[in-house]
Amino acid sequence: MAKSSLIRAWRRPVQSTENCARGARAVGGGRAALLFAAVFALLVLTHAPLLRLPYFWDEAGYFVPAARDLLLSGSLIPHSTLPNSHPPLVMAYLALWWKVVGFTPLVTRLAMLLAAAFALLGTFRLAEQVANREVAIAASVCTALYPVFFAQSSLAHLDLAAAALTLWGVVAYLRGRTWRTAVWFSLAALAKETAILAPLALLLWEVACPLIKERALCLFPGRSRPGTAALLLPLAPLGLWFAFCYWRTGHVLGSGEFVRYNLLDTLNPLRILIAGVQRVWQAVGYMNLFLLTAAAALAMWFPPLQEKAGERPRIAAGAQAAFAAIIAAYILALSVIGGAVLARYMLPVVPLVIIICVSTVWRRIRSWRAVIAIVCLGFMLGLFVNPPWGFAPEDNLAYRDYVLLHEAADQLVSTKYGNSRVLTAWPASDELTQPYLGYVQHRMRVLSIEDFSLPHMLTAADSRAQFDVALLFSTKYESPRPLFGNWPAWERIKAHFFGYHRDLPPEVAAHLLGGEIVFEQHLGGQWVAVVDLQKAEEAGNSCQPSVLRSYLINPF
User: Fold this and answer.
1) How far is it, in rounded angstroms, from Cα 534 to Cα 471?
2) pLDDT, tens digit, for every residue of 524-541?
3) What is the span of the domain harbouring residue 430?
4) Helix or strand run (H / E) with residue 359
């Protein structure tokens, strides 16, 4: 069978009443531009309260400083922050926007919303291509409302841009557009190095698929070698980037510390197993995604709905197998590499899971719209309600609570203690020393410690003469009523493999330092406090051992 016939064969079952070419034209050209503009406008409207927020966490720690270095000096290797292996495409994209429009958080967030709109348009195109327009609309809405996607849409991170380019690469791949596939996946790899997983997964699947008896799982069983080898082309620009990093820094991945944290320290069987479980959960259940995957699993108990033309079609087996290959590659690879097991790293595959699940519900449940509406309500709830366990605040709108708390504390410290020496931890240390991050108007003198756990606070207490005021905050979100309780064994495992620690409560830390709390705020399970040591000395206050002793006896 000819290649074109094979492509038609696997596409035919996934179209309902529309001709494939007509469906492509319907969202092509001018209509695609209008759809993109409409999606972008909706994203701006829904993110309006977040657009002027100062930079948050990893934005402030790496991505914005790296892009700013590129803007000011033209250097692809950042010098104001620790260099690493991240390719420069997203930083160059931001630097271009800043050069043309201006260097403000508003410009940054609008630029990232453009990338989010492009990702949603890619989701729509992909879902329409493998299913139909109804599934495409529902899958795009679900993706837009999924808490991790929504929160990341305006943040200056790499993963959402990499997801957008990966989705367009999958669109081109399923259409058999060899060189477009290579271009999209190459751009994705230059947005983030882990995006190389998608073309490599598809390549491995193409090699392995002919060995399987079920031929329906193979999209291109008779594909020419150049077509398959084109999936290797994205390795070329990524390899050139690594070579450039080695030439400029002496390390292929930018720095030895980056290699240690993301590669060497992760190679433990127990850690890989635990990270693998987390990656599976992030792909199918995290932040109320289980509502959709559970609905799809339950739908499999029902027969396909019947229409005049026959039963509602499923996504072709070959397309589902390609999706599964990419999802599995991300789960397996990111269980082994990556020091932080962040949910945003899985953004390139979550839309694939959503498309498959929405199509399954559409195919088998007559009231499928009601099911999708419930899922969307669950996603919106997840934006505002934190899960009953520790999680990264960047996974929903908890990051806004963090920023508001730090804005208030940083401005107080800056105005009332402008000439004082401040004890704090990262990222507040950057917030106080880098005015361009949006928290303070001038640089302050900072003594930075690792975190506010008991060992580091004891060390700080021995160095009280080196600072006048302390800016304390929750460096990790801790649920006030954890679902699984506080298991000492589990906390030891998290501390050993994932950098877990428990911050001292503000009052305990203040007594340990011998200071007085002059500012304290709590919001959404997070907190921030300012401790004045000079005021305590003037009042004759000192550390009260009974407070610390009480905490050590019952830290929970």
Assistant:
1) 14
2) 999 999 999 986 555 555
3) 395-553
4) helix 350-364
Task: Locate all alpha helices (DSSP H) within 175-301, ordered by sequence.
Answer: 178-191, 197-208, 225-229, 235-249, 256-262, 269-284, 290-299
Angle between helices 545-553 and 506-513 (to 10 degrees): 140
Indicate if the pLDDT at residue 509 is higher than 80. Answer: yes
Q: Pick from 400, 365, 355: which is nearest to 141 by CA?
A: 355
Residue 303 pLDDT > 50: yes
**Tens digits of per-residue pLDDT, 465-483?**
999 999 999 999 988 877 7
Residue 390 lies in a domain: no
pLDDT range class, residue 18, cuts 50, 70, 90: very low
DSSP H or E run through 40 = helix 29-46
Residues 367 and 219 in one domain: yes
User: How buried is 138 (Cβ within 10 angstroms: 0-12 exposed, 13-18 middle, 19+ buried)?
Assistant: buried
Q: What are phi and psi of 531, to 5 degrees?
A: -115, 125
Place of tokens 């950042």: 78
Q: Could you give the CA distance from residue 381 to residue 405 in angstroms, rounded to a whole number?
A: 22
Q: What is the pLDDT of residues 137-194, one digit of tens each?
A: 999 999 999 999 999 999 999 999 999 999 999 999 999 999 999 999 999 999 999 9
**Among candidates 236, 431, 340, 299, which has minimal Cα distance to 448?**
431
Collapsing DSSP to helix, strand or coil, 107 comes out as helix
Last residue of a domain, one of 385, 403, 435: 385
379-434 per-position pLDDT tens digit: 999 999 999 988 999 999 999 999 999 999 999 999 999 999 999 999 999 999 99
How far apart are alpha carbons 53 and 440 in whole angstroms?
Answer: 13
Residues 354 and 452 in one domain: no
CA–CA gap between residue 105 and residue 156 (Å, rounded) = 9
Look at residue 150 and give its three-state secondary structure: helix
Read off the DSSP letter of residue 224.
-
Based on the fold, state whether residues 219 and 138 are members of the same structural domain: yes
Q: Is the pLDDT of residue 350 over 50?
A: yes
Q: What is the DSSP string of 282-322?
A: HHHTGGGTHHHHHHHHHHTTSPPPEETTEEPPPPPHHHHHH
CA distance 422 to 443: 11
512 and 366, same domain (yes or no): no
The yes-or-no verdict on residue 4 having pLDDT over 50 is: no
Q: Distance of CA 92 to CAs 66, 158, 287, Å? A: 9, 12, 31
